[in-house]
């Protein structure tokens, strides 16, 4: 199974708009291309060639072009915050040439909110075909050869879905946007091969995991390897890479792992 980190940044990306020259890099070195981060998403690909996308961030078009992705077999959403779903229209060209819409899945509340906000995507409009079918996660256990399990995670006052994907004898867990660790989260990710985990910054945050919480979660799950993502402008790639344990790595846009 192949894991591609399409985007590794927080909701404003890195650099953030603003600053003295219109680009606020914070503590990140602008000379290091691994500090240039788009909004978070991943793609998983099986040995048979099936491709699953998790989230449709606002930078999705650029991410798909950068990674030469022109076909998807299914889409899963973690939640409906703008940085995770507002690139949904970029799925439209990937609908061309298909016999039907792209299958899509999310938690029940996310389904409700996505349908309310992007009705044309899921029902077509004015002669345009449906782009994605959207179903509740309770309807799927196997998708394109991937076994799929999930859990609802606290994300401040909201919820975000954490996922476990298993295929070709390997497992990847994707847990972004959470603010506390629950027993159900640990059970979902226990002894997975690769854990991709929320790690906004070093200091605690009301709606996201910080570095200490991310590593605490990694240790509790006994994950084989850990990738830190959803990084803000305080998290310089080289500096953070020098601080993390041997079993962990800092995500960057375009990072590819063959499991």
From TrEMBL:
Residues 18-27 have a biased composition (Basic and acidic residues). SMART domains: Lactamase_B. Residues 1-32 are annotated as: Disordered. Pfam families: Lactamase_B_2. It comes from the Bacteria. Residues 38-230 form the Metallo-beta-lactamase domain. InterPro entries: Metallo-B-lactamas, RibonucZ/Hydroxyglut_hydro. PANTHER family: HYDROLASE C777.06C-RELATED, HYDROLASE C777.06C-RELATED-RELATED. This is Phosphoribosyl 1,2-cyclic phosphodiesterase. It comes from Novosphingobium indicum.
